[in-house]
């Protein structure tokens, strides 16, 4: 049966897992899953069973999603650090009517996935940046793990690292200042400790940050809060859930 959804996998080599697609077709599984109005191809390489299941139940990145849908406004410019497979950038673009979405992702294997998700949903206001942010322009080693969401700049734990990739590094402060976003969404597996203090956060209306205390510790959490507070952004308990914390500018 022909899928009712567009399939742009041929336009984005590497965005499809043919073996997974064959297994899903044999099992009668759908070609796409819809979550919050966004369709996601089920043959994306990151689409392990758990991710397909929580996407279908509208439970994928649930805390971050709830915060973003409440914080992002029509016409906003949004920067996302740690774009994954294109989930959050697409959810925001489709549901919140921002003027621009800038999705930064280090994992080279996820770049074609993000672009395919954007393409198949007709998202034209999102820009994908394959890069990390740092003190200055250069390159860095990125550790790709079996569980793609755990991939990061951290070499440990090493037991599930599948390979490393050399990723371009852009100057953090200059790059984000040029975009001049209203909202920052950040989920970068512990790198928030180093990246957020580099940025000029004073022009943001709000920020949604997933903290990783297992990597940065409570002292690292304090560094993040201090950076936000120094920029005039305060912890917003109504928009925060557990490790996903929202900072807002008092109005």
Automatic annotation (TrEMBL):
Transmembrane segments: none
Positions of region (Disordered): 1-21
Biased composition (Basic and acidic residues): 1-10
CDD domains found in the cross-reference section: AdoMet_MTases
Residues annotated as domain Methyltransferase FkbM: 95-214
InterPro entries per record: FkbM_mtfrase, SAM-dependent_MTases_sf
Pfam families: Methyltransf_21 (PF05050)
Protein name: Methyltransferase FkbM domain-containing protein
